[in-house]
């Protein structure tokens, strides 16, 4: 290779290295592929990716707890988390009692309500949480927010984990087991409609959702203000009646170590007109991902990049 050609080739390599350096990879931890985090995370990643600048990708994970830990360790730049889990991680309370606080955890946005689903077969005779005693109940995998909430719900209704036959599996596996009769009920916390439950309801297996109402639900809300009263409308799932339950907020969190400019660009892109249209068209929960909802129910500090955007938009002072 002559000197001139070598110089051109070297310049090209250096230019490519510079471009690669300028391009930021932004990995977003979501949840299981049959839940709500995964498809919504994919839509957000598409909406905020900017050619040559930011490449955002949604990655399947075990859910809230796993995502918060991944953000803390730097193996993900951001992740979906239930509002309760994010607050516990930052304050070292709840599921993080006795563990080091995730002091660098920062908020990008509150996204949408996540309903607590308690799914049973039609005609099972399970009408309240108390009826789960002696039954085979799936509580989701370790690392999921669902497992934590399921334990809280059981306790509020006076049901110990030793009173049930627990199974720690994802909702799509739980759906299969409910279908074949090897499971009586399963919990799932996520935006309705959740893929695994919609699939189950459409498969011809008659299902019902057990309400979470009355004194135990009120007491749970009083102790844990991040729980909200929630309604899953009739026919959200095929032939399933309306049910009143509880919900937590789904939130997008990141680390204080991520540059402010990156988070600013991502937040701005997520609430652009184009992204908003795509989110609303892409999933039933997309219509909740609005600027106004972004700043509701926030229990940890905003990332400076997100804060800059919300201040410019007049949403926070």
Automatic annotation (TrEMBL):
Leader sequence segment: 1-22
Entry keyword Repeat: no
Pfam families to which the protein is assigned, alphabetical: NMT1_3
Protein origin, superkingdom: Bacteria
UniProt keyword list: Signal
Keyword Translocase applies: no
Name of this protein: TAXI family TRAP transporter solute-binding subunit
Organism name: Ramlibacter cellulosilyticus
Taxonomic lineage from the root: Bacteria, Pseudomonadati, Pseudomonadota, Betaproteobacteria, Burkholderiales
